[in-house]
């Protein structure tokens, strides 16, 4: 287990220190939090021939980004009814709390529910909210929802998703924002400009996956349609002007290191720009994306970043503070969490 000495020569258990550091998760997909044991439970509920443990584990194996999308689809296909969503929501909050996560802003793919299931989302949102309320009560970690549209399903589907998000926000204040995920190559952010303007007018906050599998033009497009946070942003490193804009405007970047390696979007840890972005003054945050799909939760991402990229503990504290500042929490809660991060340890 990693240990480090402080100036007072007191030995610190770094993993335990990072576990107890108050952390905020900003880039996490609800459907991507299904652990293999939960998948087995879902399979027992719905499959005529339930998955074996080995068969379940194989669904989490893939070779590239498109393979990951297929794996994600195969796992989330076991989500049949609203009760399944309540189950995975509660389990997600339990797992986050065990890592020292105090708040999370989590994507729900309305696009999957609408497009794949061809059903209305209200019963599913009611169930997700039941899971959230129980989870927050039992474990103390709070959750906001970001409603995600699958960009390669098209602009019309996205507009439907965002309008439903605005409608449900009046009922469920935990729904705070929207985003676009999916295959960037098949859905430029420019296609969603009008929908983003409409969502902003409805009081929703704006995020976007960009620069994960395509070039920096995807990140420019996301910024130009009003994205307040950008997920992944790997390709920004190849555009000096973009790096300057990101640094000057302090646009938060939701980095997902292990995700980028496992999907093949980044060839090696040595090539990942997380340290370069930090040293260039960009506002980076550390996140886990789809933990069981990538074999790394948020705590493990913090441990990985600290060890492999040689961040000091004070720099890890700064990353934790970045996530608080970049969140969509109200100012008073941000100030409280920032004080907790600053006073920690």
Describe this structure in words.
There is one protein chain. With 345 residues, this protein is α/β, with parallel strands linked by helices. It has helices spanning 14-20, 36-46, 53-58, 65-76, 82-98, 110-117, 122-139, 155-169, 193-201, 216-224, 240-249, 257-262, 274-279, 291-294, 298-308, 313-326, 331-343; strands at 3-5, 11-13, 23-29, 101-109, 142-150, 175-181, 205-210, 229-232, 253-255, 284-286. The strands form two sheets. An eight-stranded parallel β-sheet has the order 3-4-5-6-7-8-9-10. Strands 1-2 form a two-stranded antiparallel sheet. 51% of the residues lie in helices and 16% in strands. Helix 5 (82-98) runs parallel beside helix 7, helix 8 packs parallel to helix 9 (193-201) and helix 16 packs antiparallel against helix 17. The model has no long low-confidence stretch (mean pLDDT 94).
Q: What descriptive keywords fit this protein?
A:
two-stranded antiparallel ribbon; 345 residues; 17 helices; alpha/beta; globular; TIM Barrel
What is this structure's SSE topology?
Blueprint: E1 3-5, E2 11-13, H1 14-20, E3 23-29, H2 36-46, H3 53-58, H4 65-76, H5 82-98, E4 101-109, H6 110-117, H7 122-139, E5 142-150, H8 155-169, E6 175-181, H9 193-201, E7 205-210, H10 216-224, E8 229-232, H11 240-249, E9 253-255, H12 257-262, H13 274-279, E10 284-286, H14 291-294, H15 298-308, H16 313-326, H17 331-343
Parallel strand pairs: 3-4, 4-5, 5-6, 6-7, 7-8, 8-9, 9-10
Antiparallel strand pairs: 1-2
Helix pairs in contact: 5-7, 8-9, 16-17
